[in-house]
Amino acid sequence: MAIEAQSVGGEISETKPTVVGGRAYARRGRYMRFVVPALIVILAVIVFPWFFTIWMSVHDWQITQTQTFTGLDNYLSLLSDQRFLESIVHTLYFTVLAVILPVIFGVFSAVIFHQRFPWRGVLRAVFIMPMMATPVAVALVWTMMFHPQLGVLNYLLTSIGLPEQLWVYDQATVIPSLVMVEVWHWTPLVMLIVLGGLAALPTEPYESALIDGASQWQMFWHITLPLVMPFIMVAIIIRTIDALKAFDTIFVITQGGPGTASETINIYLYLQAFSFYNIGHASAVVVVFFVLIVILSLLLLYVRQRTLWAVSR
Amino acid sequence: MKRIIELDLGLSRRAALQTGAGAAAMAALGAWPTRAQGNFDWQRFKGESIEVILSKSPRSDLLQRHQAEFEEMTGITVGAEQIPEQQHRQKQVIEFTSGNPTFDVTSVSWHVQKRLFAKGQWLEDLRTYLEDPEMTSPDYDAADFSNAAMVYATQADGRIDTLPQVIDYWVIYWNKALFDAKGVPYPGTLDGVLEAAKALNDPDNNIYGFVARGLKNANTPVWTSFLLGWDVDSVDAEGNLNTTGPEAVAAAKLYQALNQNYAPPGVVGFNWNECQTTFSQGNAAMWFDGIGFAPPLEDPEQSKIAGNVGYGVVPPGPNAQHSGMFGSGMGVSAFSEKKGAAYYYCQWATDKMNQARILEDGAGSPCRNSAYENQQALANLKVPMQWVDALVESGKIGRPGLPVVIPVTEFRDIFGIGLTNMIGGADPAEELEKATEQFRPILEKSEQL
Fold first, then answer.
1. Are B81 and B207 in the same domain?
2. Taking the CA atoms of chain A, what radius of gyration do you get in angstroms?
């Protein structure tokens, strides 16, 4: 109880030694009145849906049919569902590329835009424009650009003597092509985050390094990169969350195709829930996906903590 | 069991051409349908307001454009909303399942939703309304609907839960200039389609003999429509799957041969929009799809082949000649508290005048015979008369292009993946076997309870 009282502010901490018995309950009761509305909202929009999802996941439930309790059958069926297992692989493949590439390009462009040169402000504004576009509109434009016979991408390739590509119209190249859209769309976000980090860096280490005769590359590798790493980690976490939940771009451009080559967990889940109306099966997918995300988030947070420790050390 | 549905349009090719030629003069005589006010009380539900959700389409644009006319005539206030097709279907199912839908009227895709809606009993049976002279205007004339449309609108138990709006037939669009340049005639058989595609295929000049949907799910109607040429429905009236027999394999081999050898690279990811772009830019000699794409193909601003498009009826297969048929109607929610006003809206939306408007706008193929006899609609037609000819002829050989089962989306998805694999070189028989094994338990389960 004392810990709870301490946690709400300095004023309470000062009075803590005098708070005993009934007065403490009365005080807590007064605080609870302020907490209750938030508690109701959390119960209604987070806790209840979660319990309901878990409840649905242990039932065989299809539209127009009654629900039957099936225990863990929906989960067990996922283990042998080749399409679901492939969707996990597709999701991870897409996520890794859609995180690493924007981070590399974003850091690189942030370093460039951190330098002083003419028209820097205008070019920065132009660079961040893709980020402001609506994902569905972006996807529709890229769909036209990807068209193997009439798209501008193959026109550009053939203009410089390179062979035409099938882009999203081939099972082997569909995910890298979708990642291209993500890179174009979200590199500016990484650039902005890292640019903020670069602007906050102290100048003293660079002055010392210059006196010691360090090269530009050595200063970047041994000073800039370690100091800006916490910002890069923030960008990686945001990009990972974005890439894992990517749906609109993939759905608009390929709908998970060709075949199931770009069917990520989100697309698979959408089909099961809203096209096939397999509510129980889809709910089991949600729970498994949630567990995967939690594991990945813990891993990222652990790495972030290690990064902070390394910097402070 | 064979399920052939003939569209009795009451209009021969010659009659249609004559009609077209004399259309302007006839229009002056006032052939446009009118709504007889007579003793029918259109104001019976005056003051009520209804909600309507429509699938996004040119037909829905048309209804919204003329909505004020309905509101003025009936005194009913309409809140109409258009929703993209897939989301529209999801919204319907989710809201009907909740037992408290927010809408009173909705459009329904027969080829996807008919069986599901029947099982859910989500729509009002309109037979009593149609038979009630106080609810149905004397000039509504339900007998004017084509036989095909009424059969499609009628459930297995005899309930009529939608009023017909449009029927879409699959046809072969062909590039006349490319055919003429090589002296190739329009194919007379399905095998002839393959031969024509081979003769016209010229990849070095970026011209391909054939294009059709390769994207999974979207591609399944291409195969099922071919299968009708073998006189076989993918799922028959008794619920038997006919997807592994020699006919199914032969139709799949035709699909594979056309798309693997004579379609543009990347067709495996093509939906109708990529096919339309390829064909309209003169890069494909033939395109097999629904008949509703004529307006953009004939628009010189969108199409390089405007004025050069042929509209061909699906040629006969080894055993039969059928055109895959898809369609939609308008229904009243069984949960609505304003069923009378909602029925009035459906009645107005599918009456002779609005059906003629659909034809006039080229917004689809109306279900009423009278629309094709409407002089003004034909005079104002935005597409060539050959389109009407193809429509009339297809109507005579129309047959549902997709099975009337609840899990039709899963059917399309599972077999669509198999067809996609075939384009990549997989064996048709093996792919069909695999897809059938996967789909069979889903179909059986859907009919339980």
1. no
2. 26
Rounded to an integer, what distance in angstroms lies between the CA atom of residue B170 and that of residue B225?
8
Q: In a mutagenesis test of the B interface, which of A147, A173, A263 is the best target, namely the one with the most B β-carbons within 10 Å?
A: A147
The answer to whether residues B194 and B305 belong to one domain is yes
Helical packing angle, B428-446 and B408-423, nearest 10°: 170
Tell me how far apart the alpha carbons of residues B105 and B163 are, in angstroms, rounded to a whole number: 11
Q: Report CB contact under 8 Å: A147, B274.
A: yes
Cα nearest neighbour of A259 on chain B: B417
B6 lies in some domain = no
Same structural domain, B312 and B347: no
Task: Tell whether B175 is covered by a domain.
Answer: yes
Q: Which residue of B has its CA nearest to A81?
A: B438
Q: Which CATH number describes the domain made up of A2-17+77-312?
A: 1.10.3720.10
Which residues of chain A does B115 touch, with a Cβ-Cβ cutoff of 8 Å?
none
Residue keyed to tokens 């979200």: A186
B interface test, pick of A165, A169, A247, A268 with most B CB neighbours within 10 Å: A169
* Interfacial residues of A (vs B; Cβ cutoff 8 Å): 62-66, 147-150, 164, 166-171, 174, 254-260, 271, 274-277
The angle subtended at Cα B2 by Cα B1 and Cα B4, nearest 5°, is 145
Q: Are B268 and A171 within 8 A, CB to CB? A: yes
User: Cα(A210)–Cα(A219) distance, rounded to whole angstroms?
Assistant: 8
Asked if A257 and B283 come within 8 Å (Cβ–Cβ), the reply is no
Q: What is the pLDDT along chain B (449 residues), one digit of tens a residue?
A: 344 444 444 344 444 434 333 333 333 334 567 666 667 899 999 999 999 999 988 889 999 999 999 999 999 999 999 998 888 999 999 999 999 999 999 999 999 999 999 989 999 999 999 999 999 999 999 999 988 899 899 998 999 999 999 999 999 999 999 999 999 999 999 999 999 999 999 999 999 999 999 999 999 999 999 999 999 999 998 889 999 999 999 999 999 999 999 999 999 999 998 999 999 999 999 999 999 889 889 999 999 999 999 999 999 999 999 999 999 999 999 999 999 999 999 999 999 999 999 988 878 889 999 998 888 888 888 889 899 889 889 988 999 999 999 999 999 999 999 999 999 999 999 999 999 999 999 999 887 75
Q: Are residues B195 and B83 in the same domain?
A: no
Q: Which contacts qualify for A158-166: CB closer than 8 Å, 24 or more apart?
A: A164/B265, A166/B265, A166/B266, A166/B269
Task: Give the chain B residue nearest A164 (alpha carbons).
Answer: B265
Measure in Å the smallest separation between the Cα of B411 and chain A Cα atoms.
10
Pairing of strands B77-83, B105-109: unpaired
pTM: 0.84
